[in-house]
Task: structure prediction
Amino acid sequence: MCKHGNEWRSRRSFLGTGCMEVFDTELWAIGLALDVVIEKREKLQEHGVKTVAVFSDSQAGIRRTAHLEPGPGQRLARRINRRARNLLAHSIPTEIHWVLGHSGIPGNKEADRQAKLARDASVSTVIERPYTSASNRARQISEGRSAAKAKWEADRCSKHFSYRLKGKAGTKRPIPMTSVKSLAARSYTGLKSGHTPTAVYLKRFGHRDDDKCWWCEGIVSQTWEHLFRHCSRWKDHQKELWKAVGKATGWKAGR
Result:
């Protein structure tokens, strides 16, 4: 989009739905602006234009145009780079500037209005061939993993009520297990660092009214030492644990 006298002139592209991120559309817009410059190059040179300035309110997009390394936006950054080199070959260097968005700048407001028209694929909008960008695919994969993880937790952990947290609305929900991989190592690290959902931990973060052990009739604090040595719920496990410790280290109870 550019201003000719008192009139705004624009070119709109519709890139499809669910194929690209906002980051990609910002890069596409920069490339589209350079397309227009290339088309009007001879006329611009006749009017003595020596430099082309493109303005964008996307700092991430502008940073991406500065390099062509692999990653999200690489294809579009290469597209911009080719057009900029094309113009430079005709003695017209390109500058890309950042402009503050949503701050009342007339050109930026008009660009937002044109973007909405392009989204609705209105008259005079060019329908581009859509493709799925790398950043869009990365987000879809991440969201898919999160959904699969949440489903797995709901299916596997909904019946485990050993630990409960109070929800925001006063309801109770079980603490989900995030993974069973390396569970022993994770549990040990959590105990050593004090980040295991014992009664002491839950009281510390306001999820319980007291820190007493729910297996020992609320008499003693449920610390990790209590669970490993004194808790009545885990007596058999404690015997096996300390027997294994003694066998491995030569330690005997009572020393």
Observations:
- The chain has two domains: 2-137, 160-249.
- The chain is about 45% helix and 10% strand.
- The longest strand covers residues 52-56.
- The radius of gyration is 31 Å.
